[in-house]
Design goal:
This protein is of the alpha/beta class and 566 residues long. The chain has helices at 2-13, 17-47, 60-69, 73-76, 167-183, 220-232, 236-244, 263-274, 290-298, 311-316, 337-344, 353-361, 383-386, 402-412, 437-446, 452-465, 473-482, 487-492, 494-549; strands spanning 50-56, 81-84, 122-125, 130-135, 138-149, 152-162, 187-194, 199-207, 251-257, 278-282, 305-309, 370-375, 393-397, 415-416, 450-451. Helix content is 44%, strand content 16%. The chain binds adenosine-5'-triphosphate. It comes from Irpex rosettiformis.
Length: 566
């Protein structure tokens, strides 16, 4: 205080306007500094009572909390908000009833106007706005933020609460998790490998597909499902014992066979049945390398399905293998820095087979996850990759048998129970009982339900028109989809469709052969022209040398190269 007085005395002794102004500046500045200091001290004091939790969009708890918040009325009453049709987690954010209408639900597509996909609209409070929500006797301060990173922005949620310890935040997270899982029970989450940053990106949540909608030869589905369940239910001590004994605790399934036979569909269906997320890696994707794959494998959660898609495509894109290798994982074929540099330009996959085997066999792989690999060309796979221990269960997917044709027909048309029989849910996944509300209503409006006896007869007749193992289930599904409102006509026209399909295939095959011949011809012409250019270049060099040699001889001859057709 004395110091302030001594500072002000020279000013007060002189009453000129300049001095008055200076005096005001000094007093004002001092007061503002004091105010700021006291405010920050107060904030610091108040903040010392707050517990704050941060949730990053890159991790699951963020999704749980966003889902929980979307159900809080205070969150929906925000006065500054974003309107979006995208939900961060595949589970629609329910913030307000104003923009929602049960009839407006996203339609998956069985109605005549299914091309007009309707979207749900959600309201999410804008970033950097703070909301106060009352929860179990505490006031939560919730703020949504955006954090900028090297590869784009990432959402963040901050929740502060005045409490003695973090019990209340733990309760909140657990409750949010439970609610999220309850609502996500009908969905399978899919994560795709991002090779650029060696991490997993959430790519969407799909509606679970009932196992009954996958039509495979009797026993196949049950066998795989039982095997997966058996593996997942292994007691922890079994896993521990096996790992200690050096025995790999993992299970690999190789699904191979013709395209469109249900390999991917079966995996999605199994994921739904087992309540697992799917992590998908395409080994031939750009930028895939041994290191990237190892990092990705290390970041897969222990309970999930890891799907290696189109295993054979990775080979055609140049997975290399040391010829002397025995199949045991080694690092000998890891591309050198020079090789990597050469590949950098086209960003191609530099994954080696040894790198792949290392990743599959590595420590991170032995955590009880299910590995599924699919291929259309099993003959192209290295035996080391598909040997038992890496791929324990092999399933061959063939073109549709008559039995499958009958099954897929029944999946397509709704069945109505016979008046006399008790109401019984048919195995049909699209049957009235198995469809969600609005979709069930719409389908029964456009497809008149068939009595079960008629459906069985039609399905049998349809199967009789389909040749054994000639068409994929996907192509039969395409035909049924085109006729989804006319089951009877669909059966009558099936034989004609088969003939038409055969003709189309023959025509396409012929066209392909012609293109291939033309391509081979043009390639040989190109090869010839390249040979010519190379030879011309060599001659030119020789002539140039001669010129240099003959400078004194004054020889300036330039010969044309001879054309040699190889
Ligand atoms: N066995 C099946 N049961 C039911 N639907 C099937 C079956 N096979 C194929 N489909 C249908 O055909 C379509 C393609 O199937 P899917 O993608 O599972 O085949 P895929 O064998 O994985 O093919 P690709 O090898 O080309 O990846 C899907 O819409 C699926 O519903």
């Amino acid at each position: 205080m004395n110091a302030l007085k001594s500072l002000l005395t020279p000013l007060t002794s002189n009453a000129s306007p300049i001095h008055d102004t200076l005096r005001l500046v000094v007093i004002g500045g001092t007061m503002e500094t004091a105010r700021r200091a006291s405010m920050s001290a107060w904030n610091g004091f108040v903040d010392s009572f707050f517990l704050t939790a941060h949730f990053s969009q890159e991790d699951y708890p963020y999704d749980w909390l966003m889902h929980w918040l979307s159900k809080q009325p205070a969150w929906g009453r925000s006065r500054e908000f974003d309107i979006t049709t995208r939900s961060s987690n595949g589970i629609t954010q329910k913030t307000t009833g104003d923009l929602e209408d049960e009839e407006e639900e996203e339609d998956v597509g069985f109605s005549a106007d299914s091309h007009r996909r309707k979207r749900k609209v959600a309201i999410i409070p804008s970033v950097d706005t703070t909301h106060t929500i009352y929860y179990r006797g505490h006031w939560l301060r919730v703020t949504r933020k955006k954090r900028f990173q090297e590869y784009g922005s990432c959402g963040e949620l901050t929740i502060s609460v005045v409490a003695r310890n973090n019990d209340i935040l733990k309760k909140l997270v657990l409750e949010a998790k439970r609610e999220y899982e309850k609502d996500a029970i009908h969905r399978v989450h899919i994560f795709m490998a991002d090779t650029a940053y060696s991490c997993w990106r959430w790519s969407g949540a799909r509606q679970k597909r009932p196992m009954s909608s996958i039509v495979l030869e009797p026993g196949v589905k049950d066998m795989i499902l039982a095997d997966c369940k058996d593996f997942l239910q292994s007691e922890d001590w079994v896993a521990w014992f096996l790992i200690q004994a050096g025995i790999p605790f993992r299970r690999g399934y190789l699904l191979h066979g013709v395209p469109g036979s249900g390999k991917t569909s079966l995996i999605h269906s199994l994921a739904g049945e087992l309540g697992l997320d799917i992590y998908v890696v395409s080994l031939s994707s750009k930028g895939m390398s041994d290191d990237t794959l190892a990092k990705l494998m290390g970041n897969v959660p222990s309970r999930c399905i890891l799907l290696l898609e189109d295993l054979d495509a990775a080979f055609t894109r140049g997975i290399s293998r040391d010829e002397t290798s025995t199949g045991a994982p080694t690092r000998t074929t890891v591309p050198t820095a020079k090789e990597k540099d050469e590949n950098k330009d086209d960003n191609a996959s530099t994954l080696s087979l040894s790198g792949l085997l290392n990743s599959l066999d590595g420590v991170a792989a032995a955590e009880g996850r299910l590995l599924f690999a699919t291929t259309n060309h099993i003959e192209r796979l290295d035996p080391a990759l598909s040997r038992p221990g890496r791929m324990d269960v092999w399933v061959n997917f063939k073109n549709a048998t008559r039995w499958q044709a009958e099954g897929i027909f029944k999946c397509f048309f709704p069945a109505e129970s016979e008046p006399s029989t008790s109401s019984q849910s048919s195995h049909d996944p699209l049957s009235q009982e198995n469809l969600p509300g609005s979709r069930r209503k719409k389908q029964s409006m456009i497809v008149p339900p068939l009595l079960e006896t008629e459906l069985n007869t039609l399905a049998k007749r349809f199967a009789e028109s389909i040749p054994e193992e000639e068409f994929s289930v996907a192509s039969l599904q395409g035909y049924l989809l085109r006729n989804k409102t006319r089951p009877r006509e669909c059966v009558q026209e099936a034989a004609a469709w088969v003939i038409q399909e055969r003709e189309t295939r023959a025509r396409l095959k012929k066209e392909k052969e012609e293109v291939s011949v033309a391509y081979t011809g043009s390639r040989s012409r190109t090869a010839f022209s390249l040979d010519f250019q190379r030879e011309a270049k060599e001659k030119e060099v020789r002539v140039t040398v001669r010129r240099l040699d003959n400078t004194t001889l004054k020889l300036t001859e330039r010969r044309r190269p001879k054309l040699v057709k190889k």
